[in-house]
Design a protein that fits this description.
The protein has 14 helices and 11 strands. By secondary structure, it is an alpha/beta fold. It folds into 3 domains: about 35 residues, no CATH class; about 260 residues, Type I PLP-dependent aspartate aminotransferase-like (Major domain) (Aspartate Aminotransferase, domain 2); about 110 residues, Aspartate Aminotransferase, domain 1 (Alpha-Beta Complex), CATH 3.90.1150. Helix 4 runs antiparallel to helix 12, helix 6 packs across helix 8 and helix 12 packs across helix 14. It is globular. The C terminus is likely disordered. It binds pyridoxal-5'-phosphate (PLP). Keywords: Decarboxylase, Lyase, Pyridoxal phosphate. It comes from Rhizomicrobium electricum.
């Protein structure tokens, strides 16, 4: 028999454990130990017939789960483009979990809908979005791009006199999809989910930083969707938006911006020349769980003319009561119906930071990235990209050496970086996206990288030439 523990005791226990976990992140290794990962086997069991005390469930999670987490909340995790979670957003998330709101309709959660309205208004200012734009809260940039491109699909087919929501794609008039050679895979996935085959996209060549070459754009017309990006996932480079948007505008084409992390450059005055022109687009996708540092999952989509988004997303049935006249009904703009109230943490982050705080967060990460680049160059390593934002690509010599340095760092756990191949060169990626990263973290990471690179060099030099794998 399970006894009924008062819920307060349970929550106290969980919060004590969570606080201890968070307090440990500064010193905890960036990646879990192989032992901790192996110990996850503790969770593998047949579905138990009898239940377990709630307190024991939480204890099991902490004892075996916490050690097997990746310390993305710490200051020395530089993999992918992740970010941590600002303490205020974790606290808001706890309260929101207690509320257990369904953000589908205004009437299922007035507070979630209100905070969506408020945050959308603030994003309009922060990202320089056009008056009257519409938007929605989704799971991440991937889903934001699916949502935005569904709106784009509606618009371009409507111009061709075709109702794509009713008639589908079979027998539809042709449309043109333009992407760059460096498009993020999530855009190609979004296009494929929407029935635009990946092989049917026109791929525009890029320059040495991965920027779409505006001079290589194909002819555009009002049945064209052009996908551009603010922030290449490797170099951080921005497509020349002003030029591309001007061309698209003249032709009546739709421009979608993948700004998963790069759109946040709009918030930072020092990045204004990079982010200029992106406000001329027709739709934008971005993440809050990356650079705004809110808990997973949290993405945002914005569309210049909300009617296209609404036409693509709206679903009605008699049991779905209409909300008040005039108020924005969240479900009209999202692919999901029931969903968690992401606006709570997003609002909390913006309210806590203010415009200056968001700017400072972005500027700080960019400064740390420059610090990394200078530190690596000073130690004799080659930085492969122009460090214009928060991304640094570094080579430690041969592909083999670079891969070996990455492996050493990942197993050492002081800092965590991933690898990539950039225009034929094997590189290590450093992405600075967390509020928690300090100059001290950067210095410690630089020293750790340098030591790993020296060890690798010594080892590889001791291996006879014939033994090297190329
Ligand atoms: C992370 C990222 C995405 C995908 O975003 P998710 O939130 O992971 O779905 C898309 N584009 C770029 C440039 C990204 O960095």
């Amino acid at each position: 028999m399970l006894h009924d523990l008062p819920a307060e005791d349970l929550f106290d226990a969980a919060s004590t454990r969570a606080k201890a976990y968070l307090a440990s992140t500064a010193d905890r290794l960036a990646a879990p130990s192989p032992e901790a990962v192996a110990a996850l086997a503790r969770f593998r069991e047949p579905l138990p017939a009898a239940g377990t005390e709630a307190l024991d469930v939480v204890r099991l999670l902490d004892e075996f789960g916490s050690p097997a987490t990746v310390a993305t909340t710490g200051g020395r995790y530089f993999g992918l483009v992740m970010g941590g979670a600002l303490p205020v957003t974790v606290a808001a998330n706890w309260l929101a979990a207690a509320w257990d709101q369904n953000a589908v309709f205004r009437w299922t959660s007035p507070v979630a809908a209100e905070l969506e309205d408020v945050a959308l208004g603030w994003f309009g200012e922060l990202f320089d979005l056009p008056a009257g734009f519409g938007g929605a809260f989704v799971s991440g940039s991937s889903m934001a791009s699916v949502t935005a491109l569904a709106a784009a699909r509606h618009a371009v087919f409507a111009r061709a006199g075709w109702d794509v929501e009713e008639e589908g794609l079979a027998g539809a008039p042709p449309v043109t999809i333009v992407v760059s050679e460096e498009q993020h895979p999530s855009i190609l996935k979004a296009l494929s989910l929407l029935g635009f085959g990946r092989n049917r996209c026109i791929r525009v060549p890029v320059d040495d930083q991965g920027r779409m070459r505006a001079d290589a754009l194909p002819p555009l017309d009002e049945r064209t969707i052009v996908c551009i990006q603010a922030g290449n996932v490797n170099t951080g480079a921005f497509d020349p938006a002003a030029e591309i948007c001007a061309r698209a505008r003249e032709a009546g084409a739709w421009v979608h911006v993948d700004g998963a992390f790069g759109l946040w450059a709009k918030a930072a005055a020092s990045r204004a020349s990079l982010s200029a022109g992106f406000e001329q687009a027709d739709s934008w996708s971005t993440d809050a769980h990356k650079w705004l540092n809110v808990p997973y999952d949290s993405g945002l989509v914005f569309v210049r003319e909300p009617k296209h988004l609404r036409a693509a997303m709206s679903a009605t049935a008699a049991y779905l009561l209409e909300g008040e006249e005039g108020a924005r009904e969240p479900s009209h703009f999202t692919p999901e119906m029931s969903r968690r109230a992401r606006s709570i943490e997003v609002w909390a982050a913006l309210k806590h930071l203010g415009r200056d705080g968001v700017a400072d967060l972005v500027e700080r990460c960019c400064a740390h990235a420059r610090h990394f680049a200078r530190g690596l160059q000073a130690r004799g390593y080659e930085v492969l990209n122009e460090v214009v934002l928060n991304q640094v690509l570094v080579s430690f010599g041969s592909p083999e050496s670079t891969r070996a340095v990455i492996a050493e760092l990942q197993s050492g756990g002081i800092c965590w970086c991933g690898g990539t191949v950039w225009q034929g060169r094997t590189a290590m990626r450093i992405s600075v996206s967390s509020w928690a990263t300090t100059a001290k973290d950067v210095e410690l990471s630089l020293e750790t990288m340098d030591r790993a690179a020296r060890r690798v060099a010594a080892r590889i030099e001791n291996v006879p030439m014939a033994g090297r794998s190329r």
